[in-house]
Amino acid sequence: MASDYGIKLDGQPNWTLKAGFQGIGVEVGNGSRRELTRREKARKIEKHIGGQAASALDKPPRARFAQGAGRIHIARFIGGPERDKGAMFHIRTTSSAGQQIDLVLFGSMDNFPGRVLRPADAVEAGWYSSAWHAIAELLESRGTRNTSQWDDPELLSLEALNIALNQGSISTEQEHEDRPWTRGYTLAHADDSEWFAQVYTDVLLTETRRPLSGNMHGAQRIIVGAPVWIRTASPASLIRYARLPDRPAGDTPRRRLPFLR
């Protein structure tokens, strides 16, 4: 991304102060460079493309980047090449015009600093989607290829949202409502979090499509992509489900639900 947009994320030179009879001078120490911190990299990215990302959700599709703040739900994504360490994030927000927007972002648990969340924190139980291979292809191609049976962009976007909302279900939707920690593969959520996303697909659902029900009801625009960064307000704002009661038991037989049609 940095290469595509001409953003230089090289480290900063290490400057050395030297005092002598001629006064104080500054020189670069042995050509070494200090690696930029995550925050410094974020500032450089925001400087170059933050403007288009901040206003993306108030404009028609297709966005290339999006940015915002709010509650983020975090879970494992067990499909694709990152099966053992895949991470999935769901964000539900609203545009200035009142349009509901769901973002489903996929990344790797390797990028969680300090191993604040681990794969073992998520109970492997409940439903998982047979569409994982289609989602994996979407991610690997960055939205440029779709050879699956979900060849309609709307269908694949709906399936991604279905995974984000229902993966790990072991009971009825009503029993899991507002209690995501009772589903398998879920990890945590955090309020008042900042996020910046690279967009792979951005779909506005057709109004004439059959009305969606349950927790899918109200979906109007679905964005699938990858997080460039996610920042919680503080370590305490991350609610880790591994510490909560009512977690499902492990090794529950996983079941496949019918595909979304």
Q: What's this model, at a glance?
A:
This protein has 261 residues and is of the alpha+beta class. It has 4 helices and 8 strands, in the order ββαβββαααβββ.
Task: Give an overview in words.
The chain is α+β, with helices and mostly antiparallel strands. Helix content is 17%, strand content 32%. The chain contains 4 helices and 8 strands, in the order E-E-H-E-E-E-H-H-H-E-E-E. It has helices spanning 38-54, 132-140, 153-166, 173-176; strands at 12-20, 23-34, 65-76, 86-94, 100-108, 186-204, 221-231, 238-240. It has a 5-stranded mixed barrel with strand order 3-4-5-7-6. The longest helix is centred in the N-terminal third of the chain and has 17 residues, at 38-54. It is globular.
The SS-based structural class is alpha+beta
Low-confidence stretches: 252-261
Mean pLDDT across every amino acid position? 84
Helix content: 10-25%
N-C termini distance: 34 Å
Q: Strand sequence of the main sheet, in spatial order?
A: 3-4-5-7-6
Give the number of helices.
4
Q: Could you tell me the strand content as a percent range?
A: 25-35%
Q: Provide the gyration radius in Å.
A: 21 Å
Global geometry:
globular
Tell me the major beta sheet.
Answer: 5 strands, mixed, barrel
- Beta-strand segment tally: 8
Order of helices and strands: EEHEEEHHHEEE
